[in-house]
Amino acid sequence: MEEKNNDLNLSEEKQEFSCETNDNVVAENEVSLNDEAVNDVATEEENANEEETKGEKKAWKTFKHGVKKTGSTLWRWTRRTFIGASKDLVSEDKFGVEDIVSPTKQIFINFFHKPLAVTALVIFIIIFLFALIGPLVNKLDLGYNESYHVNIKPGYTFMNVPNDLKNNVKSISSFSYFSVGLDNNGKVYVWGNTKIPSSAEKTDLKNIPDEVRNSKVAFVAAGYDHIIAITESGRVIGWGEYEGAQYGDKGSLIGTSQVIAMPDILLNGTINVNDVAQLTCGYQVSAIVMKNGSVYVWGNYKSGATNMKTLRARTDVAEIQFLGTKCVALLKDGSVWFGNAEESLGIVEIAAADGSLTFKKLSEYQNGRKAVQIAATKSAVATLLDDGELVITGVFNTESETSVAQPVLAEGETVLQLEGGAKHFSMLTSAGNVYSFGDNNLKQCKAPGKTYGTDSKLIACAFQNYVIGSDSKLETKWGCKGYLMGTDELGRDVFLRIMHGGKQTMTIGAVAVIISTIIAVIIGCLSGYFGGWVDMLLMRVTEIFGAIPFLPFALILSSILAGKNIEENTRIFLIMVILGLLSWTGLARMVRGQILATRESEYVVAAKAMGVREGRIAFKHILPNVISVILVSVTLDFAGCMLTESSLSYLGFGVRLPRPTWGNMLDGCNSELVIGQFWWRWLFPAIFLLVTTICINIIGDSLRDVMDPKSSIEK
Amino acid sequence: MARYIAKRLLYILLVFILISFLMYLIYNAIPFDRARWLADEQKEAYKYDPEGLEQLYQEKRTELGLDKNIVERYLMWLGVMPLNGKYNGMLQGNFGVSYTNIQQPVVEVLKEPMKNTIFINVFATVLALGITIPLGILCAVKKGTKLDTGVQVGSIIGYSMPTFITAILFIFIFAISFGWFPVSGQETPGSTLTGAARFFDRLYYMALPLIVMTFCSLGGMTRYVRASMIEALSMDCIRTARAKGLKERTVIFSHAWRNALIPIVTLVIGWFLGIFSGSIMIENIFGLNGMGRMYIISLNNNDFDVVLTLQMFYVIIGLVGNLVIDLIYGLVDPRIRINK
């Protein structure tokens, strides 16, 4: 008896599920009546049948009775004992509920009752929108790189001017990823990414030497990886990296022809601070300009300023500016000194009205006019002449999408202060306006539209700008705050690349899935529907494609593409096609199987017997059954294709650098150094890829569960 | 049975010929001229004799059979058509020549990588099976519990995670942060260890790739075992067994497990065949001299004979694997008649 009961219960359980998914409403009334009867028998004979309560529980949960699960069984038993079973049936409104819920709606309801699936869906939508809308808002310049911001740690510290300094600024200086400030009391502050990324010894620039900390400082300037300070007593002290003879006499390059060693008087003696006109630092080089026009220069001039050597002999220098690998000087007679770099930096391009270019040396172009101020970016020099004309020489490109063009000043407005960053110029005009122009990738040209006192001081650091009021108060600042997710080996913003890479990865995944699904559905449908020799032939083709080892074959195909000289966009499209062509076999088999099974099912036979047309059977009776299979497979394959693309790109056979994808961003993260020290370069793309694929897989799994009535038994 | 196998073998042969021809066509689409390459190696000697160089090039072309059309070349490569009067193709055991550094027969080049790949894959497979099968059974028996949900989520993460990310993550955690394992390499550089010491040294270097490989295969396999076990547990015979009052342990391991084993066995066989192919990703990341790494290196060096041989090897493994799986299926499941 017990065994029989079990069987009945089993059938009951199964039928409950068919109710749940509402496969056919007509059959279900009887079924439900049936199992209520069974339930009654069971309750009477055996008050606690485990299987049955389970089934009941599920039923109750499914139909949302509002009674708590644990209490419900007891409550039902009591009710049935005293009131009777028939009431139970009448009072249930489950048939009503069943009648109005369509299968699609039921799937929706079931799906949205899975908290995990909903969470996954929400996260996926967020990432999807991020990768879809983000690139439209934030443009990516593929050729962009920033050698001063290589391997920067995540964080927004670049413009965190210390509070003590804010109201009492004397000077602020920055050449790369850290800044150094000096207040009017002679105290030095350092902020930004103070740990030098390339340093093996993990030099931290925040460790200001005691000599500087304990004495009053008159001048301080920041170079690429070192800081030089001059104290009131005339001592010149440096800290930071010293290998390239940036300061001191410890560097391994000292004594070679690579570098100019620090002059002995600076190393061991003192200079008169009152005679110092300017202290400036560049890429591992430094210079002090004295008021009498003589200069002290030292450092790794071969990489920092190749024309610096001849500057030492001059005695008429007013100001020195360091570029990326050169230096320029403003001389006391109002001319600009370029040294041997005149060819590249000192030539003025004059565009005629008909578009033709003529070239003139700056000295000739000046034609008697005097230069009053100079400013320098990495590769360009701006010279302000005494009649108010601003001449820019060297390489200065403002035509790309991410740059700001030189502003046209109003009539009568003149430039008061001119300053240069790494890739931009800033100026303060007689109207009190501040303008920044040049490269705006790091928002260094996002100058506020306000006006400031004409006696304010404008400071342009490499990537930041500050306006200091006449009362030494920091009025405003703009520029690069730092990087949310750090930068890579070329100084590119990892976050921005993740955004654009996501778009690329998802596009490839989606197109590949669409291609493979179309092939699979066509082949599967033809094969399943027609059967016979068509089926035989198509299935053999499927098997042959299935026998091709996926990754090796994809590698070969993309290496063939690499050998051919084709455009990158075409190549990426062909990669999508390859992925699609190689991954359709599984779905094709599934579709075929599903169609075969459905074609033989009773209701299709019934429909045929009733004389329903072939086309109607195919679309109304068979297709809905296949759609669920396709939908689930598309979801899961989407994740699969994204992973394959990433793997291919990671191996260097997919999308090529500099175009980012989540896979090739991890390319080059293979060494111990990168994995260990520059963790942000692989961790963030990996997290994005991972979260996306996990979400898609969870969504796919949940879809399968809610669409397939059988699989929910396993749940 | 014998007839069935013969039929299948014939079918494999057919598919193999088709795929190999397809592959051969694709390889020939790669813009690379081996004869030109060989001739250019002698460029120094023919510095003042461009005609001699051209003649050498033509000689090389004849020698390699490049002056024939693609079908003829394919047949020569297979070994069913004579090249320069001699049958010398795959069927004769000649898989071509590897042209990196020194010219060597492909078989020689592949010997060492094959050994390494088998060495690491045997360990990885045994380890993975040892973990996934008990875990899958446990999850199936305790389905719906917190443990099961936890493992389910873990396995979704496991199979959503591409191998290279797992590898980088594990290198970061175990090799760099904790310093337990070496980051890459195969054995201590310049070591002169022999015997057991060498074995353990190699094992030490293999440990991290092994862990990564095992971890990567955990997700899919656990889910598979769990699903087939759940299906087995819902069978009528299990209910009967429980009704008879058998111990739960007996029910699970004797009744359910045997039924669940059928789909699992096929998968395991497939896995063991995968031992020979090697993991392209893992071998590349960890710098192991295995089949997968060989494949990438050869592909990058235009060493096509090696690539083609490997590709054919993968195809054969796949096809034979399918046959073996079908046969085993018949053996473990008496309900299936395969000799139809």
Explained architecture:
The complex is a heterodimer of chains A (715) and B (340). Chain A is an alpha+beta fold and 715 residues long. In chain A, strand 20 (424-429) and strand 21 (434-439) form a beta hairpin. Chain A starts with a helix and ends with a helix. By secondary structure, chain B is mostly helical. Chain B contains 13 helices and 2 strands. Chain B starts with a helix and ends in an 8-residue tail after the last helix. At the A-B interface, helix 1, helix 16, helix 17, helix 21 and helix 22 of A face helix 1, helix 6, helix 7, helix 8 and helix 9 of B.
Q: Key terms for this structure?
A:
heterodimer, A: about 725 residues, alpha+beta, 4-stranded antiparallel sheet, 3-stranded antiparallel sheet, 24 strands, about 45% helix, disordered N terminus, B: about 350 residues, mainly alpha, MetI-like fold, 2 domains, two-stranded antiparallel sheet, 2 strands, about 0% strand
Instruction: Tell me about the largest β-sheet of chain B.
Output: 2 strands, antiparallel
What integer value in Å does the Rg of chain A equal?
37 Å
The CATH architecture of the largest domain in chain B is: Orthogonal Bundle
Helical residue percent band of chain B: over 70%
Strand content of chain A: 15-25%
- State the shape of chain A: elongated
Using the coordinates above, name the CATH class of the largest domain in chain B. Mainly Alpha
Low-pLDDT parts of chain A are 1-57, 60-67, 711-715
**Rg from alpha-carbon coordinates of chain B:** 26 Å
Quaternary state of the chains? heterodimer
Q: What letter string, H or E per element, gives the SSE order of chain B? A: HHHHEEHHHHHHHHH
* Largest Cβ-defined interface: A-B, 48 and 54 residues
How is the topology of this model organized?
The complex is a heterodimer of chains A (715) and B (340).
Chain A: H1 2-21, H2 25-45, H3 50-62, H4 69-82, H5 85-91, H6 94-100, H7 103-112, H8 115-137, H9 163-166, E1 169-173, E2 178-183, E3 188-192, H10 210-214, E4 217-222, E5 226-231, E6 236-240, H11 264-268, E7 276-281, E8 285-290, E9 295-299, H12 301-304, E10 317-322, E11 327-331, E12 336-337, H13 342-345, E13 347-351, E14 357-361, H14 362-366, E15 371-376, E16 380-385, E17 390-394, E18 403-404, E19 415-420, E20 424-429, E21 434-439, E22 457-460, E23 464-468, E24 474-479, H15 494-530, H16 532-547, H17 550-563, H18 568-582, H19 585-599, H20 602-609, H21 614-651, H22 672-677, H23 680-707, H24 711-714
Antiparallel strand pairs in A: 1-2, 2-3, 4-5, 5-6, 7-8, 8-9, 10-11, 11-12, 13-14, 15-16, 16-17, 18-21, 19-20, 20-21, 22-23, 23-24
Chain B: H1 2-29, H2 34-41, H3 50-64, H4 70-78, E1 97-98, E2 104-105, H5 106-141, H6 146-160, H7 163-177, H8 195-233, H9 236-243, H10 248-274, H11 280-285, H12 291-300, H13 304-332
Antiparallel strand pairs in B: 1-2
Helix pairs in contact in B: 1-13, 2-3, 5-6, 5-8, 5-10, 5-12, 6-8, 7-8, 8-10, 9-10, 10-13, 12-13
